[in-house]
Amino acid sequence: NSYSYLLQADGATTPAEWKSNGNSRSIIFDNLPPGNYTLQLKGYCGNGSTAVNTIVLHISVADFFYNTWWFRLLIVLLIVAIVYVFYHIRLAHALRMDKMRIRISSDLHDEVGGLLSGVAYQMELLAYQAPAAQKDVIQQMASSNRYAMSRMRDVVWAIDARKDTLGDLIVKMKETAQEQLSQAHIETLFLQNNVDESTIMHADIRHNIFLFFREVLTNILKHAQASEVEVNIAQQGGWLKLVVKDNGIGFVQQPKHSGQGLSNMELRASNMKGRWQIHTNEKGTTVVLSVPV
User: Fold this and answer.
1) pLDDT at residue 291 greater than cutoff 70
2) How many other C-beta atoms can be found within 10 angstroms of the C-beta atom of residue 242?
3) What's the confidence (pLDDT) of residue 99?
4) 3-state secondary structure of 12
5) Angstrom distance (rounded) from CA 14 to CA 91
6) What's the burial of 25, exposed, middle or buried (CB within 10 Å: 0-12/13-18/19+)?
7) How far apart are the C-alpha atoms of 22 and 167, rounded to whole Å?
8) Tens digit of pLDDT for each residue in 135-161?
9) What is the DSSP letter of 157?
10) Which of 73, 85, 230, 242 could form an SS bridge with 289, CB 3.0 to 4.6 Å?
């Protein structure tokens, strides 16, 4: 006896052909695409006559679960859920850090600031009552105390999460320039070009820009003999550009930016993944810092 079969996909427009299966009573279909099929079977007797009845079987081939629409939808929902949970974990952590920064800055301002203010008041009384020979020593101590208060205010500002905008940085820079340069009778002009003061800045970037700027002011006070300083702040294409120009006497620029102050400026620019340049001659010095924000 021998057998033949015909496998037709439901809905197919091209009719299938009968195929011989020899005398085997089993049929194996490999890599059959998902769908519904009709299988017809015929048998042949040894004398060549065909069996009267044709066996008809309806076959349904299911797709692999990972190719189904519901599995793909489940994967998409799972990814969305993971991203959502991760985002909220990051957000909760950031909020906790902000609260901690605000608490620490407030405690420093209230406790340490109050202590230093009290010391300053006591020194003023002591200087008023002290003999002339001791006034110089007391004044030096008072000067050191004022310096400590100034640096403490800078630390409080750097920590405070409520001061994380570009506008807050510009205000701090103006205050620092006024505090340091006015005592040396140096006029300061601040210019802004296309600046969005509401831009949120990472605390490290904000702090490093401020320390870089303060180092520039220190160098001006120590070496420039300037009477005017121009500060230009511009924002473009995701970059913040700070230009500080003075009308001083300039200085001799040593190879590889030698000097602790310039080395600190180079280090801070590198920490911010920024770049900086310094141009100097007998008509003044210009420092340019560009930082991605």
Assistant:
1) yes
2) 21
3) 83
4) coil
5) 59
6) exposed
7) 87
8) 778 777 877 777 787 777 888 888 888
9) H
10) 242
Question: Across-strand partners of 190?
Answer: 231
- CB under 8 Å to 193, separation ≥6 — which residues? 232, 233, 234, 235
Do 210 and 173 form a contact (C-beta atoms < 8 A)? yes
Helix residue ranges, H only, 220-280:
260-271
Residue 167 to residues 73, 146, 164, 194, Cα–Cα distance (Å): 45, 26, 8, 12
List CB contacts of 116: < 8 A, sequence separation 6 or more. Answer: 145, 148, 149, 152
The whole-number pLDDT of residue 6 equals 92
Quick one: CA dihedral 90, 94, 95, 96, positive or negative? positive
Which strand ranges, in their side-by-side order, compose the sheet holding 187-193? 187-193, 228-236, 239-246, 284-292, 275-281
SS3 label, residue 56: strand
Strand-pair partners of 2: 44
**Nearest residue to 211 via CA among 143, 157, 149, 284:** 157
The pTM (predicted TM-score) of the whole model is: 0.61
